[in-house]
């Protein structure tokens, strides 16, 4: 079962990096929001879109970017804790959050719950069977 723990750790590292990289795509909302509020667009179109549209997209982009990056970093921390055989509860909480991301997060979350529920793994974490 220790082989499953090393596989689980690698999967959490890969998923964490993947999520962090995908978070940068959300910065496109920030750029669009900035462009909509720019004087250049008003000069080109003659009339600028309402100010709240650009501000909304700018704010939404930053909020989503921060949330996605936090989730990616938490997955990386979880992977490190799996390597050290510490923080089983933390890893289970992160697995629950991963289950909200269908399909890859759901698959990783379920695999995490299955592996961490095993008796050998509980013993590796120093927990009673």
Query: Tally of extended strands?
Result: 0
What does the radius of gyration come to?
20 Å
Q: Quick one: overall form?
A: rod-shaped
User: What are the segments in which pLDDT stays under 50 over at least 5 consecutive residues?
Assistant: none
SSE series: HHHHHHH
**How many domains is the backbone divided into?**
1
Overall residue-averaged pLDDT value:
89
User: Helicity level, as a percent range?
Assistant: over 70%
Oligomer: single chain
Total number of helices: 7
- The termini sit apart by 15 Å
Helical/strand content category? mainly alpha
Characterize the largest beta sheet: strand count, sense, and whether it forms a barrel: none
Approximate strand percentage: under 5%
Key features of this structure:
129 residues; mainly alpha
Summarize the structure.
This protein has 129 residues and is mostly helical. It has seven helices and no strands.
């Amino acid at each position: 079962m220790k082989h499953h723990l090393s596989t689980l750790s690698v999967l959490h590292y890969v998923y964490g990096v993947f999520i962090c990289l995908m978070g940068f795509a959300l910065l496109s909302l920030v750029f669009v929001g900035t462009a909509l509020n720019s004087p250049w667009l008003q000069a080109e179109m003659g009339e600028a879109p309402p100010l709240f549209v650009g501000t909304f997209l700018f704010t939404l982009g930053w909020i989503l970017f921060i949330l996605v990056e936090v989730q990616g970093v938490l997955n990386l921390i979880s992977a490190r804790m799996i390597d050290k055989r510490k923080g089983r509860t933390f890893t289970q909480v992160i697995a629950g959050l991963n289950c909200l991301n269908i399909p890859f997060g759901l698959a990783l979350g379920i695999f995490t719950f299955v592996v961490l529920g095993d008796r050998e793994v509980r013993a590796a974490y120093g927990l009673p069977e």
